[in-house]
Design goal:
The complex is a heterodimer of chains A (about 110) and B (about 110). With about 110 residues, chain A is mainly beta. Helix content of chain A is about 0%, strand content about 50%. Classes of the chains: A mainly beta (about 110), B mainly beta (about 110).
C-alpha cells in the first residue's frame, strides 16, 4: 500500500489478556517506530528499529511489552497480561534510510482494556 | 537523552491574528527539529522541518540554538489551522525521534 498500515484499528481486551498489534511500514523504509498516545497526550516513544535490529527499547513501560521486526519489514507490538493503564492509541511510523527524514505515521490502533 | 517541551497545552486565537506555538528542547548533540500536525480524524503528518527551511501553509519555524527553541509561527491564522501541533526532535546521528506533549490550536472566527 501507499502508506503505513496498522491493524487492527480498534481492539478491546479484557484485563489480563494478551494482545498483538501489527504494523506494515512503507515498503523499503528502514526505520520503524512505535509510540503510545494516551488520551489528550502527545506520542510517547516506545521503541525503534533499524531494519530488524531493535536499537532502542527504552520507552517500553514494562516487561509486559515486547516488539519485534524479524525480517526488517512488518513489526508486531505485543502486550502481555494487559492492564487498564495500557489503554491508549498505539502509533507506528516508518522512515527511509536517509538520516532524519520525515516519519510517516499509521492511523494507529486504539486499545481499550476493560 | 533528548527532551522536547511544549509549554502550552491549549492556544486560542482569532482568525487573522498572529500565532506562535512554543517549543523548547534539550539535547547535548546536534538535533534536527520538526513540527508535526494532526487535524481532526486524520493521522499525524509532517508540517515542516528545520533543515528544509520551507514555509508550509504560511507557517515558519526558526531554530534558535542559544535558546534551544524551535517556535512555530504564522502571521495570520486561519480557521483551518485548528489542530494539534507537535514539536519533535531527532538526533542528526540517527532517527530516534521524540515528541513534545503537543499544543491544541483553536482559531476562532
Amino acid at each position: 500500500g501507499a502508506g503505513v498500515s496498522q491493524s487492527p484499528r480498534y481492539k478491546v481486551a479484557k484485563r489480563g489478556q494478551d494482545v498483538a498489534l501489527r504494523c506494515d511500514p512503507i515498503s523499503g523504509h528502514v526505520s520503524l517506530f512505535w509510540y503510545q498516545q494516551a488520551l489528550g497526550q502527545g506520542p510517547e516513544f516506545l521503541t525503534y528499529f533499524q531494519n530488524e535490529a531493535q536499537l532502542d527499547k527504552s520507552g517500553l513501560p514494562s516487561d509486559r511489552f515486547f516488539a519485534e521486526r524479524p525480517e526488517g519489514s512488518v513489526s508486531t507490538l505485543k502486550i502481555q497480561r494487559t492492564q487498564q493503564e495500557d489503554s491508549a492509541v498505539y502509533l507506528c511510523a516508518s522512515s527511509p534510510q536517509e538520516q532524519n527524514t520525515e516519519a510517516f505515521f499509521g492511523q494507529g490502533t486504539r486499545l481499550t482494556v476493560v | 537523552a533528548q527532551r522536547v517541551t511544549q509549554p502550552e497545552k491549549l492556544l486560542s486565537v482569532f482568525k487573522g491574528a498572529p500565532v506562535e506555538l512554543k517549543c523548547n528542547y534539550s539535547y547535548s548533540g546536534s538535533p534536527e527539529l520538526f513540527w508535526y500536525v494532526q487535524y481532526s480524524r486524520q493521522r499525524l503528518q509532517l508540517l515542516l522541518r528545520h533543515i528544509s527551511r520551507e514555509s508550509i501553509k504560511g507557517f515558519t519555524a526558526d531554530l534558535n540554538k542559544g535558546e534551544t527553541s524551535f517556535h512555530l509561527k504564522k502571521p495570520f491564522a486561519q480557521e483551518e489551522d485548528s489542530a494539534m501541533y507537535y514539536c519533535a526532535l531527532s538526533p542528526l546521528s540517527n532517527n530516534d525521534m521524540r515528541f513534545g506533549a503537543g499544543t491544541r490550536l483553536t482559531v476562532k472566527p
